[in-house]
Amino acid sequence: MKKLVQEQFLPISIEKAWDFFATPKNLNEVTPRDMVFKIMGDIPEKMYQGMFIRYKISPMLNIQLDWCTEITHIQEGQFFVDEQRKGPYNIWHHEHHFKSVEGGVLMTDILHYDVGMGILGWVASKLFVDAKVKQIFEYRKEILGKYEFK
After folding, report:
1. Half-sphere exposure of residue 78: CA atoms within 13 angstroms, side-chain side
2. CATH number given to 2-146
3. In which residue ranges of the chain is pLDDT below 50?
4. Phi, psi (degrees; rounded to nearest 5) at 67
5. What pTM value is reported for the model?
6. CA 77, 17, 36, 25 torsion: positive or negative?
């Protein structure tokens, strides 16, 4: 299993940070355009524990995949966890943590993921999956660094 940890300072209040990340439609704002990310079906304005979010996503070669995540844990204003229920990974466990610090918020992502599929998955992970996951989080960090929060 792989682990990715990324921290980012956001010069906004914890309330603004939470409002932004607790709004599922904002996922589009922080996902690379080349992934052709689309939320399927109606979703509420704010996430809730037990909520399922279905997507269509094209992570590479314009191959469209179904992805479904569940919001499994929420501690309002502090953290939430999304876990894949259907999709390309054997395991996808993504923790989003928020902490008030001087001048803003320290946001920490902790992602555990595994492609599965034995040796084939290991090869795929080495050839492109690990790099793609890293690219997604680098894109997110860049976008958030210049995002104008409302």
Report:
1. 4
2. 3.30.530.20
3. none
4. -140, 135
5. 0.91
6. positive
